[in-house]
Every structure is written in structure tokens, then in C-alpha cells.
Specification:
The chain is mainly β. It contains two helices and 13 strands. The longest helix has 19 residues.
Length: 263
């Protein structure tokens, strides 16, 4: 099924519905943690970030992403929607436009704060909505995922969340390759005692079963709460550089800067 003809307004409507739905579902039970760094603490938040990448072997890409998250069903589930606007400059290709949209459902079947452990499972759908073929995967895919969360591991104030996602396409455009990938994430968060600053590291290993390729992307993030400076509640910003490892890496490196509001 090809989703390229869905008007953008339909996607924006999803964001509006999320805002209304989350506002009604949170109510007085809104979480006190405003950093948005705990993946199993389902809060209502909006984030916008821009990532500039140096492609391998040559080229540049700039992607601006809007992310909305909302809990529902008494905070037992979380809905996430991502919208992207991208520009790509590789050889003869110089395109700009909207990229693929993805939607994720996540839940936490196991949470034991005494043992400082949790398990989350989810399913992510990637829709073939890019306005130009070069700006998307050319396929509609599904990505079931599972991750564990260990709170305050190794004696640090933070968490360790190893994860695995298996992504496979269920429909491809003519002439586009099938997608069959595995992604291993080793998320490590170190939080300051004041919870105003954090450091995040995510070495990610990509296993492309379809193309028989393997490579890694290493993300490093520093973030800070901005409320004491802005007089707000739940506002934060971060800087995330990354670099690629392996001959099959799609990018040599990237720089991402983001702004987030947790309600």
C-alpha cells in the first residue's frame, strides 16, 4: 500500500488529536519527572530536533523531526508519532520535502522498582509517505521491539536500557529493496543529582539481513533543563553528536540539536 498521496494535513491532525487525548488522559496523574529521559515513564511531550549528517562516501542530509508522545489507557500504553522534513544532497540528487512518518505503540508489562528493573515491548510502523523517492525508504515496514531498563546500574544515578528492534517491510515500491534489519541499542543515561543535567550514550549496532551488511552508529548526548532560566516547567534542550563505524556505515557522522517540552 502506498501512502504518498495522504495529505500532510492528515498527519498534522494526528498531532492535534494527540494533544487533546493526552491532556485528558494525564489529568492529576501527570508525572513529576520533567526530563523525559526515562523511556518507561509515559509522559505527554513534544520534541523538535534537527540532525545534519555527513553521508558515506559523499553527500549531506539535513532532517528536521517533530515527535509527539502521549500516554493512554491509564498510562499503561504510550503512542508516539514522528513527522520529518528532509533535504538531501548526494551527487546529482538535490531534493527537499517531507519524509516517512512512523507511529509507535509501547507498553510496560513488567515494572519492579524494588528490583530496579523494567521490561517494555512495542510495535513501530513506518509508512511510505515521503514526497520524493530519495527522501524515504520506499517501503511500508513494521518494527517490533523489546528493551529492558535497569535503574541506577553500576552505582550511577541513571539507567541502562539494552534494546532490540526487528524491522521488516510488508510492501515496497517497484524497484525498491525489501527491508529486513535488526537494531541493537545499548542506551546508558547518567543523570546529575539535581536532575538538571544528563549525559546519554547509545552505541547502536545495525544488522542488515537483506543486504548482508553490518555497521554501528554511536550517539553521545548532553542535555539540560531550561526551566530555571526560562521560568517554565518541563522545557529542556540537548546536543547530540554521533559517528559511524564500519565500511558499510551510511553516515560518517552527524550533529543533532533538539528542544523538548514535557507537560
Amino acid at each position: 500500500m502506498n501512502y504518498k498521496n495522504i495529505p500532510l494535513i492528515n498527519s498534522l491532525l494526528l498531532i492535534v488529536l494527540l494533544c487533546f487525548f493526552a491532556g485528558n488522559s494525564l489529568g492529576a496523574s501527570a508525572k513529576q519527572d520533567k526530563t523525559g529521559t526515562n523511556p518507561v515513564n509515559f509522559t505527554y511531550d513534544l520534541k523538535i530536533y534537527n540532525e545534519f549528517s555527513w553521508l558515506n562516501p559523499d553527500g549531506e542530509q539535513n532532517v528536521t523531526t517533530l515527535v509527539a508522545k502521549a500516554p493512554f489507557a491509564d498510562d499503561k500504553w504510550q503512542l508516539q508519532v514522528k513527522l520529518r522534513y528532509s533535504s538531501l544532497d548526494v551527487g546529482p540528487v538535490d531534493d527537499s520535502g517531507f519524509g516517512d512518518i512512523d507511529v509507535r505503540l509501547l507498553t510496560v508489562p513488567y515494572l519492579n522498582m524494588e528490583a530496579k528493573k523494567a521490561v517494555a515491548i512495542g510495535i513501530e510502523a513506518f509508512f511510505d509517505t515521503a514526497s520524493e523517492d530519495s527522501l524515504g525508504s520506499g517501503a511500508t515496514s513494521l518494527g517490533p521491539q523489546v528493551f529492558m531498563v535497569f535503574f541506577n546500574p553500576f552505582g550511577i544515578n541513571g539507567l541502562f536500557a539494552p534494546a532490540y528492534q526487528h524491522k521488516f517491510s510488508i510492501d515496497e515500491d517497484s524497484g525498491r529493496d525489501e527491508i529486513h534489519q535488526g537494531a541493537i541499542d545499548l542506551n546508558l543515561l547518567i543523570m546529575s543529582e539535581s536532575k538538571l543535567f544528563w549525559f546519554f550514550a547509545d552505541p547502536q549496532i545495525i544488522l542488515d539481513y537483506e543486504q548482508d551488511k553490518e555497521y554501528s552508529i554511536v550517539d553521545l548526548e548532553v542535555g539540560a533543563m531550561l526551566d530555571k532560566y526560562l521560568g517554565t516547567s518541563g522545557h529542556s534542550a540537548y546536543l547530540r553528536p554521533s559517528f559511524g563505524v564500519g565500511s558499510d556505515r551510511p553516515t560518517d557522522g552527524s550533529v543533532e540539536i533538539g528542544y523538548k517540552v514535557v507537560f
